[in-house]
């Protein structure tokens, strides 16, 4: 993958371009739209108030386990109720770029974060991969992970959906890791990206 999709128009957003060449979207425009960056925690934030303490602790433990398996990547989940008419894709992109989920300051190309934003009010979600992951994570991977979230949360059980998403990403990355090791062993090093 050589660039990300614009969260507004879905056109190719070459990195590190400051403006979408198709629709003109910028982070500054999203700053005006969304305002102050909300308070958040490293692994899981629930701004909707709909997850109970036990659910949140179980999910944080799942995300800590993911980090132990993939220590170079931070997977964060942000649950919220966006105002009507808001785009969860734009919000996720904005939050991923403006909030500091990682504790270490990194340049954009060295940032290996995944941010799952779930808008309960809009019944929508987005999964944003940071710039450092764009050559390893395809749009299809992100869409498949969101499909796993939706399937897991069908009965209205958001924590089950989040767990299903985490499990899908873990499984996909293990598969990609095995593919990369096989390619190195046979001398045909290929990019992991689809």
Structural description of this entry:
The structure is a single chain. This protein is an alpha/beta fold and 194 residues long. It has one domain: Diaminopimelate Epimerase, Chain A, domain 1. Helices cover 41% and strands 15% of the residues. It has helices spanning 27-34, 53-69, 88-98, 139-152, 158-186; strands spanning 3-5, 12-14, 44-46, 74-80, 113-119, 124-129. A 4-stranded mixed sheet has the order 3-4-5-6, sandwiched between helices. A two-stranded antiparallel ribbon has the order 1-2. α2 (53-69) packs parallel to α5. It is globular, with a radius of gyration of 17 Å. The N and C termini lie close together (7 Å).
Number of helices: 5
Please give the share of residues in helix.
40-55%
Number of strands: 6
Class based on secondary structure composition and strand pairing = alpha/beta
Q: Using the CA coordinates, give the radius of gyration.
A: 17 Å
CATH class, please?
Alpha Beta
Lateral arrangement of strands in the main beta sheet: 3-4-5-6
What's the domain count? 1
Provide the low-confidence segments as ranges. Answer: none
CATH architecture level-2 label: Roll
Order of helices and strands: EEHEHEHEEHH
In whole angstroms, how far apart are the ends?
7 Å
Features:
alpha/beta, Diaminopimelate Epimerase, Chain A, domain 1, two-stranded antiparallel sheet, 5 helices, 41% helix, 15% strand
Blueprint (SSEs and pairs):
Elements: E1 3-5, E2 12-14, H1 27-34, E3 44-46, H2 53-69, E4 74-80, H3 88-98, E5 113-119, E6 124-129, H4 139-152, H5 158-186
Parallel strand pairs: 3-4, 4-5
Antiparallel strand pairs: 1-2, 5-6
Helix pairs in contact: 1-3, 2-5, 4-5
């Amino acid at each position: 993958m050589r660039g990300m999709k614009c969260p507004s128009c879905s056109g190719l957003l070459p990195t590190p371009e400051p403006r979408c060449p198709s629709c003109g979207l910028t982070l500054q425009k999203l700053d005006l739209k969304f305002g102050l960056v909300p308070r958040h925690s490293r692994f899981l934030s629930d701004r909707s108030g709909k997850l109970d303490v036990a659910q949140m602790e179980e999910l944080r433990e799942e995300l800590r386990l993911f980090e132990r398996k993939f220590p170079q990547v931070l997977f964060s989940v942000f649950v919220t109720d966006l105002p009507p008419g808001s785009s969860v894709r734009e919000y996720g992109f904005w939050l991923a770029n403006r909030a500091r989920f990682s504790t270490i300051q990194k340049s954009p190309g060295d940032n290996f974060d995944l941010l799952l934003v779930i808008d309960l009010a809009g019944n929508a979600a987005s999964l944003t991969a940071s710039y450092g992951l764009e050559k390893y994570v395809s749009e299809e991977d992100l869409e498949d992970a969101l499909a796993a979230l939706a399937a897991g949360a069908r009965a209205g059980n958001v924590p089950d959906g989040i767990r299903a998403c985490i499990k899908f990403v873990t499984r996909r990355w293990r598969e990609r890791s095995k593919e990369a090791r096989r390619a190195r062993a046979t001398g045909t090093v290929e990019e992991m990206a689809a």
